[in-house]
Amino acid sequence: DIQMTQSPASLSASLGETVTIECRASEDIYNGLAWYQQKPGKSPQLLIYNANSLHTGVPSRFSGSGSGTQYSLKINSLQSEDVASYFCQQYYDYLWTFGGGTKLELK
Amino acid sequence: QVRLKESGPRLVQPSQTLSVTCTVSGFSVTSYHVSWVRQPPGKGLEWVGAIWKGGSTDYNSALKSRLSISRDTSKNQVFLKMNSLQTDDTGTYYCAKHQLGAGVMDAWGQGASVTVSS
User: Fold this and answer.
1) B103 contacts on A by Cβ (under 8 Å)
2) Cis peptide before A8 (omega within 30 of 0)
3) Distance separating alpha carbons of residues A72 and A52, to the nearest angstrom
4) Which of B91, B93, B85 has the alpha carbon at shortest distance from B42?
5) What stretches of chain A adopt beta strand conformation (E)?
6) Which residue among A20, A43, B18, B72 is least enclosed by CB atoms within 10 Å?
7) Does the beta-carbon distance from A34 to B47 stay under 8 Å?
8) A34 vs B104: CB contact, 8 Å cut-off?
């Protein structure tokens, strides 16, 4: 199984700040990576797929990048509605696996 | 509009069987794959298994011996059954629709919260 390691586990940032969350795969996943946002008490929502493609309706302040085993999610100009947990998921190889999550809070 | 909604019992006794139904609208389960994903309280996400648009299934190898996923195409419903439940099976069970031909899940249900306890 491909292991996904996310960092940091938690993050505190100010409104307007730029935030970066990292995800590392235990082997090359060839851009088969998605990012999800999960607000408190809600279900996960797709943000990014294929490592850097923005899902329909997702604000452009979210962006994804990376290749090989290293990927990142960047949030520009942090808004209050971005307070959530973020999960990466690899879908290059069975079984599909998720990172442990990053909890983003406002400072 | 794509919608998925899970329904099932909130409380299941240890060693019993969990049955959760995912009722979808806005798309056909014969056109898109549907997965089940679970989340223990306060923890991360775990892919449980999937039923492909053609009707075949795949399961998380760690759970495979206890799992069954099926569907009723006439009602556009997908079913999850998991037997021999233990307390660490407690959590929220989500069904999710896949993007065409990919492992990406682009629409999720609200989740069914299940507690395994006597």
Assistant:
1) 32, 34, 89, 91-92, 96
2) yes
3) 9
4) B91
5) 4-7, 10-13, 19-25, 33-38, 45-49, 53-54, 62-67, 70-75, 84-90, 97-98, 102-106
6) B72
7) no
8) yes
How far apart (Å, rounded) are the C-alpha atoms in residues B73 and B70? 10
pLDDT tens readout for residues B50-102:
999 999 999 999 999 999 999 999 999 999 999 999 999 999 999 999 987 67
Which of B32, B58, B105, B110 would you mutate first to test chain A, the one with the most A CBs within 10 A? B105
At B1, the amino acid letter reads Q
Q: Residue B99 carries which DSSP code?
A: P
Q: Are B1 and B26 in contact (CB under 8 A)?
A: yes
Task: Please compute Rg for chain A using Cα positions.
Answer: 13
